[in-house]
Amino acid sequence: MKDFFGFRKMITSYFIMGFYVLGAVAIPILAFTGMIGLLGLGLDDRSSSGIGGIGSGIGGIIVTILVIIVAEIAFRLTCEGIILIFSLLRELTTANALLKIIADNSSKPVTPPIQSRAPGQVRPPAAAPGPGQGRPTAASGQRTT
Question: Which one of 13, 70, 127, 138 is separated from 87 by 20 to 30 angstroms, measured CA to CA?
Fold first, then answer.
């Protein structure tokens, strides 16, 4: 409850999902209702050309079907975009909480991992020995530097 009232837990995505279901059902119903209204106007109100308005006949049915398809896709994309924003917020909140846990639990600095060499890569040269610390050579018995 603390997260809910502190607005750290977002419930908007659940409302958007419910809103999408209602909209997905309402769009075709409203489109067909509008088509029936346009067909009625086309039959009653004959224009001077005698063919009625844009919503009359087969043209009205085709326009209604296209409106339903475009409206459903646009409505779906809008709802997905809103849900995406809130999903990103949820993931960022989770990552932030994990980083705080890691920071609180680390008592010593983290050392970087040992890097492995790729196959065929030569070993880096060792540090040069200081003065007087070279190996004796077999031939002369003197130290090399």
Answer: 70
- Reported as type and span, the H/E element at residue 13 is helix 12-44
Residue 101 CA to residue 95 CA, distance in Å, equals 10
Helix, strand, coil % over all residues of the chain, rounded to 5: 60, 0, 40
Beta strands in the chain (DSSP E): none
Residues 6+ apart with CB under 8 A from 45: 52, 53
* Cβ within 8 Å of residue 89, ≥6 positions away: 10
For residues 87 and 89, give the distance between their C-alpha atoms in angstroms, rounded to a whole number: 5
pLDDT digits (tens, 9 = 90+) for 61-81: 888 889 899 999 999 999 999
Matching residue, tokens 């050392």 = 111
- Domain range list for the chain: 2-99
Q: How far apart are CA 90 and CA 79, in angstroms?
A: 17
